[in-house]
Write a structure and sequence with these properties.
Alpha-Beta Plaits, nucleus, flat, Smc1_ABC, mitosis, Rossmann fold, 24 strands, 6-stranded mixed beta sheet, alpha/beta, 27 helices, 6-stranded antiparallel beta sheet, 9% strand
């Protein structure tokens, strides 16, 4: 068996440069500290053998290239500067070469390299190969790259034992080679299924065509019988058409004579009515003119009253502003007088100060003269030499008494400071006392002003309360009038509604009138017409009217008839009359949905729509039509109930609420229609008009007396409303009283503002007084303290002078003798003190003179007086303007009252004139109504006869059209059925009528002579030959005779319908036979293809099964013994038990044979003396031993020449490691495989034949390798 000799790595991961690892012995152990590069050796072996980069602890191939820096490089980089230590240039590529020795000893070099761009290259003995060639070379030597039967990575041992059955089956497929057939297996399986489907489709198609041939043979026999029955049916149709046309022609001629007589009478009555209409129009125009004049005068009167009421608030506002300005100007005059008095007082004070200033100036001049005289008498005068001597001695004296002088100077400065403070506080205390006197006077003035304003406010509030009571009384009286107006308006609205309902029939549009007349004519002409749904039924309660009208929708105007034939005749009649469109409900053909009985047992707030219709309003025979238009619609009281039924309970019904909101079966909700109430009012209108009659729903006229009584009631209520309006206008206007209230409130507001301002000023003055008193309390103690400190400072100064004087006397003794003075202090007191006192006196004069000059300024007082006078002048000017505006408003009010009286008298005359015209119009209206009733009655008779005539004509036309449509060959004397038009427009062209000659229907529904249905019998271009009719058919015109024709036709039609032949059966029979032959050929071809596809699939399936079971049988046979060898010991000589089992499920036997690779293989291992447990419940060491046994068993099937494992003993104790080491040594001695194991356990690597040590070289920052053969050191 071949083996791995050595490994050459170059710049791979942590291996820098080119290094040779090995040689590897039969049992080689790789050892070294953590992080030295052991796992990188494992990655190098995996890399050279073609394993992908994702399994080599890297995401990209270029990450496998060495990128570390040497120690020397790091040191040099540190010298060059921080941040450049890793500045070495990375290598461009990495490569790993494995030297492999075959069984015959021939060595093969397998090389794989990768560049920095991530490109990988493969070489065998320096010859470039593709990956497929490279992998094939390894596979020939049982090195399976995909199955990885030569590698066990770190941490993979437990996962191998715990892998799922599907993964284990997939591993056995890779080892056995059956996985190579998987793609072909799936493809052939799909081909087999498609071929089977095609075969089944062809078989079913052949069987269907055979059945179709049998059916066509049966249809050929029925076709001949069908032709015989058709001829019999045509003969019966001709006789029935001749019978109908004969009797229609006879009745048509009788109706023409009666219509001519009625038309003449109608013309005379219309002429009489036209004259009465002219008179009525004239009197109506005169009445309208009188009413317009009344309205114009009323509008003018309202404008005048509004103007008179509007001038009152303006007048009150002006008066209030006048009062406010008068009060304000009075205050300004008082202020001006006070300022004048203050100015006079200030002027007298200034005059006194001027006299004082003259006295101060004179005293200053006298003092200066006295100073000069005293200076000449004060003692000796020193010359220059004596002065120098004085200064020298003085300097020496100051030097000797410096300390005493400093103390005295400090005390003197303190005394001066205290004296200034004492003077400042005394002055401030005097000012505060003056301020208190002034503030006391101001407080007294403000207190008097506050009391005056308080009294005025109380008086004004009383006036305001009285004005509000007056306003409330006027409002109460007006509310009473308004309440009476509301009651009268309600009665008037009720009367107007009754009038509107009573005249609903007169307000019908032209189309509605024609539709009503047409319905009445159809009921008379066609016995099977019952009427419209809205006329045949009504809700059982008034509250359901809106809901029922919404639910019925367009079916409200649907017309109920007995049979579909009646509906067709009515449609033809309406088309000829040009009435419009209508919906018909034939009772014999409509499919009415059955009502769900569960809906009848719902809660009280829901009901079915059919229950809301009064049972007495329609016959039982009409119930089918009612069920058709109503269906399973539910009427609910509220929208909440409807939502609960449709959404929460899930009922598939149509729900309608009482206010017209609809929830459809689909869940869509609609509502908000504006015409629902108008539709619901149709039942109310019929009650008022007396129209509602289930059997005869026709419009009836209201008696004239009822109309007149309603109109008189309306006029009476209108007159009451006018009287109430006049009473309301006579009540004191709210605007006037409100203006008075607003004026009083404004005055009260001004007064309160003045009061608030006065209180604020008073509070401010009182606060200033309190602050001044507090300040006096604070200043008096401070003044006493300063005075006491001043006295103490003077005493301290006097106590220090004796020592100073002693030094001066000693030093100045000779000098004093020379100038003839007792002591130097005598000289200094005489000359120096005089100069000092003169300076102090001059300063006092200067300060007093400045104060007197400042007190003489009166500019501020003058400016205040000027501003006050300007403000007073502006307010007086505003007051004059307001007086003028007040006079203007009073004059306008007097003029308006005169105009108002004249307008009221003119309005009274206009109303009397309008009342006279109204009486004339009422008489003319009664005459027109009487004549109109007569014309309507005669017009109805004419219309009825015209309708009879047109109905007969329509019946004749519809019968001939039916004959033309059904191709019934009716015998004719003149003309042809092709001349019978299918539409009215075509009729005009065929019968020679011009379009403009057709008269439009008149206002009474009469058609002109151009109508096809009303064409005279003599003008009809087609003449029918009634010869085939026998005498019995000519005499009898009853329904029973016509029913005989219907029965014969029904009998023949029923037989024809039962036959229902296929007339093209013979033609299609030949085509079916040809398709049958072609289908049989397709079936044979599909069956052959299915057989061939099944054979190919079975071959691949059997081969896949053989390969898999061969590998499975071998592994199953080896694993138990290997597991026993790994687990037996002296204590457990038999070892454990391990076996493999196939999961045999329904999915694996779907094709009828056992296919274990479809589901999976389950691995079981039981350690010695332990019960059976799942693999997941074993300990880590037990899983490792079991996984190792499985790897060795799989390896024994297609043994790879070498086995590389990375720390597979990490979870084992020493005893298990020793067993595995012994087993590996035994395999190596037998030369069954080569083992290269990375381990840190000495129990394992001590049993190895050689050691490969890996360490980290810190100088080169690279992994290094040492090799040691242990065979040479065996004991």
């Amino acid at each position: 068996m071949g083996r791995l000799v050595c490994l050459e790595v170059e710049d791979f991961k942590s291996y820098r440069g080119r290094q040779v690892i090995g040689p590897f012995d039969t049992f080689t152990s790789v050892i070294g500290p953590n992080g030295a590069g052991k796992s990188n050796l494992m990655d190098a072996i995996s890399f050279v053998l073609g394993v992908k980069s994702a399994q080599l602890r890297s995401t990209q191939l270029h990450e496998l290239i060495y990128r570390g820096a040497t120690a020397e490089t790091v040191q040099n980089g540190a010298k060059r500067g921080r941040g450049q230590a890793n500045a070495t240039k990375p290598t461009a590529c990495a490569s790993v070469t494995a030297v492999y020795a075959d069984d015959d000893g021939r060595e093969v070099r397998l090389t794989r390299s990768v560049t920095s761009a991530g490109v990988s290259e493969y070489q065998i003995d320096e010859v470039h190969k593709t990956y497929a060639q490279y992998a094939k070379f390894l596979e020939e030597r049982n090195v399976l790259v995909k199955a990885r039967n030569f590698l066990v990575f770190q941490g993979d041992v437990e996962s191998i034992a715990s892998q799922s059955p599907k993964d284990l089956a997939k591993l056995i497929e890779q080892i056995s080679g059956s996985g190579e057939l998987c793609a072909e297996y799936e493809e052939l399986k799909q081909q087999q299924e498609r071929a089977s489907e095609n075969s089944a489709f062809s078989f079913n198609k052949r069987r269907g065509i055979a059945a179709e041939m049998k059916q066509f043979r049966e249809q050929r026999a029925e076709a001949k019988r069908y032709e015989r029955l058709e001829r019999q049916k045509e003969e019966t149709l001709v006789l029935r058409a001749l019978w109908k046309l004969y009797h229609v022609e006879r009745r048509f001629v009788d109706a023409e004579h009666q219509l001519d007589e009625l038309s003449a009478t109608l013309g005379a009555r219309r002429e009489e009515k036209s004259a009465a209409d002219g008179v009525y129009a004239d009197v109506r125009r005169a009445q309208a003119q009188a009413q317009r004049e009344v309205l114009r005068m009323e509008q003018r009167l309202r404008r005048l009253r509004k103007g008179a009421d509007g001038s009152k608030p303006a007048l009150l506002k002006v008066e209030e502003m006048v009062r406010h300005l008068e009060r304000k100007t009075g205050q300004l005059k008082d202020v001006a007088d006070r300022i004048a008095r203050d100015r006079d007082v200030q002027q007298r004070a200034v005059n006194a100060l001027v006299l004082d200033l003259d006295g101060v100036n004179k005293a200053s001049e006298a003092f200066e003269a006295e100073i000069r005289n005293q200076a000449s008498k004060s003692g000796p005068v020193l010359d220059e030499q004596q002065l120098r001597e004085y200064r020298r001695i003085k300097d020496e004296c100051e030097l000797q008494t410096a300390s005493e002088r400093q103390e005295i100077g400090a005390l003197e400065r303190q005394r001066v400071t205290e004296a200034e403070a004492e003077k400042h506080i005394a002055s401030k205390l005097s000012e505060v006392e003056q301020q208190l006197i002034k503030l006391a006077d101001e407080e007294a003035a403000l207190t008097g002003q506050r009391d005056s304003l308080n009294a005025q406010t109380i008086h004004l509030m009383g006036d305001l309360d009285r004005a509000k009571e007056k306003l409330a009384a006027a409002a109460e009286e007006r509310n009473g009038i308004i309440q009476r107006e509301i009651e009268v308006n309600e009665k008037l609205n009720e009367t107007l509604n009754r009038l509107m309902q009573a005249s609903a029939a007169k307000r019908l549009s032209e189309r509605e009138k024609r539709m009503d007349n047409c319905l009445r004519d159809m009921r008379r002409l066609f016995p099977g017409v019952y009427g419209r749904v809205v006329d045949l039924c009504r809700p059982s309660q008034r509250q359901y009217e809106t809901a029922v009208s919404v639910a019925l929708g367009k079916n409200m105007d649907a017309i109920v008839v007995d049979r579909e034939a009646t509906a067709i005749e009515c449609i033809q009649y309406m088309r000829e009359q040009r009435i419009g469109q209508a919906t018909f409900l034939p009772l014999d053909t409509i499919q009415a949905p059955s009502i769900n009985e569960k809906l009848r047992s719902l809660s009280q707030d829901t009901t079915t729509l059919t229950r809301t219709l009064c049972d007495s309003t329609y016959d039982v025979s009409l119930e089918r039509a009612m069920q058709y238009v109503c269906g399973s619609t539910i009427v609910c009281d509220t929208l909440t109930t409807a939502r609960k039924l449709c959404y929460d309970d899930g009922l598939k019904v149509k729900a309608v609420t009482l206010d017209g909101i609809v929830i459809h079966k689909s869940g869509l909700m609609t509502g908000g229609r504006t015409d629902t109430r108008s539709a619901a009012q149709r039942w109310e209108e019929r009650e008022v008009e007396g129209e509602y009659d289930a059997a005869h729903p026709v419009t009836t006229l209201i008696p004239t007396g009822t109309f007149e009584a309603m109109k008189r009631a309306r006029d009476s209520l209108v007159a009451q409303l006018k009287e109430l309006g006049q009473e309301r206008r006579q009540v004191a206007s709210d605007e006037k009283i409100q203006a008075e209230v607003s004026g009083l409130e404004a005055r009260l507001g001004y007064m309160r503002e003045d009061m608030s301002a006065t209180k604020r000023k008073l509070a401010a003055v009182q606060q200033q007084i309190e602050n001044a008193r507090q300040e006096m309390k604070q200043l008096q103690p401070r003044l006493e303290q300063i005075r006491s400190r001043l006295a103490a400072a003077a005493e301290s100064i006097q106590a220090r002078y004796p020592a100073l004087h002693a030094v001066e006397d000693r030093l100045f003794a000779a000098f004093c003798a020379s100038i003839n003075v007792a002591s130097i202090r005598e000289y200094e007191n005489g000359q120096l003190r005089m100069s000092q006192q003169a300076n102090e006196k001059r300063l006092q004069f200067s300060v007093q003179r400045s104060k007197l000059e400042n007190l003489q300024q009166l500019d501020a007082m003058e400016e205040r007086a000027r501003k006050t006078q300007d403000t007073l002048g502006a307010e007086l000017h505003k007051l004059q303007s307001l007086h003028e505006e007040k006079e203007s408003i009073l004059r306008s009010e007097q003029d308006g009252l005169g105009e108002l009286e004249r307008t009221e008298s003119e309005l009274k005359a206009c109303r009397e004139n309008a009342a006279a015209h109204s009486e004339t119009v009422s008489q003319a209206r009664q005459n027109v109504t009487r004549l109109d009733r007569g014309v309507d009655e005669m017009a109805k008779l004419v219309m009825e006869k015209q309708s009879d005539l047109e109905k007969l004509g329509s019946e004749r036309i519809s019968t001939l059209r039916r004959c033309r449509l059904d191709e019934i060959q009716v015998p004719l004397v003149r003309g042809s059925l092709e001349d019978v038009p299918m539409e009215d427009a075509e009729a005009g062209e065929n019968f020679g009528m011009e379009e403009m000659e057709v008269d439009e229907p008149s206002e009474h529904g009469l058609g002109g002579q151009g109508s096809l249905a009303s064409m005279r019998s003599r003008d009809w271009p087609v003449e029918i030959d009634f010869g085939p009719l026998d005498d019995a058919a000519r005499r009898r015109d009853d329904d029973q005779f016509g029913q005989n024709y219907e029965d014969r036709l029904t009998e023949v039609a029923a037989e024809v319908e039962r036959i229902a032949p296929n007339l093209r059966a013979l033609e299609r029979l030949d085509g079916v036979e040809n398709r049958l032959k072609e289908t049989e050929r397709d079936f044979e071809r599909a069956r052959k293809e299915a057989h061939e596809a099944k054979g190919r699939f079975l071959e691949v399936k059997q081969e896949r099964h053989r390969r898999f079971m061969e590998a499975f049988g071998h592994v199953e046979g080896q694993i138990d013994q290997i597991y026993k060898d790994l687990t037996k010991s002296t204590a457990f000589p038999l070892g454990g038990t391990a076996y493999l089992s196939v999961e045999n499920t329904e999915a694996s036997t779907a094709l009828g044979e056992h296919e274990p690779y479809l589901e999976g293989i389950r691995y079981h291992a039981m350690p010695p003396l332990k019960r059976f447990r799942d693999m997941d419940q074993l300990s880590g060491g037990e899983k490792t031993v079991a996984a190792f046994a499985l790897l060795l068993a799989i390896h024994s099937y297609r043994p790879a020449p070498f086995f590389v494992m990375d720390e597979v003993d990490a979870a084992l104790d020493n005893a298990n490691v020793a067993r595995i080491a012994a087993y590996i040594r035994e395999q190596c001695v037998a030369d069954r495989a080569q083992f290269i194991i990375i381990s840190l356990n000495n129990t394992l690597y001590e049993r190895a034949q050689s050691l490969v040590g890996i360490y980290r070289d810190q100088d080169t920052n690279s992994s290094r390798v040492l090799t040691l053969k242990l065979d040479e050191y065996e004991e």
